[in-house]
């Protein structure tokens, strides 16, 4: 009787397939890792943008509802109105507003009163330069004043 020869892959062919398949899987994992890093980076940048927008909106709203005073010695903004007062404390790596904390690092700040740069006391505008971590972005917050303000105060 003649032995029947079955068609099958050789050991060498199976090893080649195994090497090729493992190379493809390794590249897929590398690509997945790169994509995950990019997603994390995008999320961090988005979080920073949201933090800046929330801070800018809050500070603008507070500036336009209160009179603003700056204490240079304590690095503190006090915003007063007949109803309440709010304090902004500028620390090295963050800003504290009452119970809120903004994770924003300010590199420089310029204070203004009626368009003239001042060092402290009453102010009506502020220019904040953010740190490198926030792409050196600049914020300019000012009080919106109408003609009645100038008639009553000058």
SSE map:
Elements: H1 11-63, E1 67-71, E2 76-80, E3 85-90, E4 95-97, E5 100-102, E6 106-113, E7 116-118, E8 121-123, E9 125-130, E10 138-142, H2 147-153
Antiparallel strand pairs: 1-2, 1-8, 2-3, 3-4, 4-5, 6-7, 6-9, 9-10
Question: Outline of this structure?
Answer:
This protein has 154 residues and is of the alpha+beta class. It is built from 2 helices and 10 strands.
Description:
The strands form two sheets. The protein has a six-stranded antiparallel β-sheet, covered by helices on one side. It contains two helices and ten strands, in the order αββββββββββα. The chain has 154 residues and is of the alpha+beta class. It has one domain (11-153). A hairpin with a 2-residue loop joins strand 6 (106-113) and strand 7 (116-118). The protein is rod-shaped, with a radius of gyration of 30 Å.
Percent of residues in helices comes to 25-40%
Order of helices and strands: HEEEEEEEEEEH
Average pLDDT taken over every residue: 88
Structural class: alpha+beta
Q: List the domain count as a whole number.
A: 1
How far do the termini sit from each other?
Answer: 120 Å
As a whole number of angstroms, the C-alpha radius of gyration is 30 Å
Tally the helices: what do you get?
Answer: 2
* Unreliable residue stretches: none
**Shape field:** rod-shaped
Count of DSSP strands: 10
């Amino acid at each position: 009787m003649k032995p029947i020869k079955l068609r099958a892959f050789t050991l060498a062919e199976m090893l080649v397939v195994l090497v090729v398949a493992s190379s493809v899987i390794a590249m897929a994992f590398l690509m997945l890792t790169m994509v995950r890093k990019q997603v994390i980076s995008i999320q961090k940048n988005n979080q920073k943008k949201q933090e800046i927008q929330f801070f800018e909106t809050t500070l603008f709203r507070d500036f336009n509802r209160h009179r603003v005073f700056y204490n240079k010695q304590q690095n503190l903004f006090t915003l007063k109105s007949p109803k309440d007062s709010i304090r902004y404390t500028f620390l090295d790596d963050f800003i504290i507003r009452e119970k809120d904390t903004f994770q924003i690092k300010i590199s420089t700040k310029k204070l203004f009163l009626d368009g003239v740069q001042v060092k402290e006391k009453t102010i009506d505008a502020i220019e904040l330069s953010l740190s490198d971590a926030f792409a050196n972005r600049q914020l300019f917050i000012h009080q919106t004043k109408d003609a009645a303000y100038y008639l009553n105060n000058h």
